[in-house]
Prior knowledge:
Blueprint: H1 2-15, E1 68-77, E2 88-99, E3 109-114, E4 119-123, E5 133-137, E6 139-144, E7 154-157, E8 169-170, E9 183-186, E10 192-193
Parallel strand pairs: 1-2, 2-3, 2-4, 3-5, 4-6, 5-7, 7-9, 8-10
Amino acid sequence: MKLLLLLAILKSKIINGQIPPIIDIPIIPPPDCLPEDQNPNRPDVCCTSPLLSDDNPPDECLDPSMTTLNFIGTGICNENLDCCRCSEINVLDARSFICGGDLSCRGVKINLFGNILGASLNCNGDQSCEKCIITGDNLIGIRCDGDQACRESEMYLNQNSGDTNPQGILFPCNGDYTCKGSKITAKKCNWIIM
């Protein structure tokens, strides 16, 4: 009954030309998040979730003494919560880097240096690449496809590339609240398509 009343109120406001405000619910880590479960860069990012406990465990940065990952060519953080405990991820001579699991790569500094053909970053999981600092050179694409992926991230793109990228950067943000609140600084790029 309450749901029908709410729908009737919303419908009447839209019909009268008023659109109800979208309520943004901030993502706050649970108060019981242990220090060892927090991202080293962002203590407000908790790298555990009881909702994802039925999935395979994360593969990367499980040892607290190893917080930096280095890849050449292609890197993958595909499990849920994968690479969340990393402080920094470096991908050199890159073709692609993929954060495919839900909550993967959250709060991480990602340095992606594309090869001569260019590189792409794919944040496909829900809340993947959220609250990241992403530095990328010779990039041709960034995909943020999961709900809230790339949310509240800082991106510094093609800051040191030698020439202007004639191909530009494809940058689709597909999903609820995807890329919301992100700050993007791009140089030496003819165009960005979002």
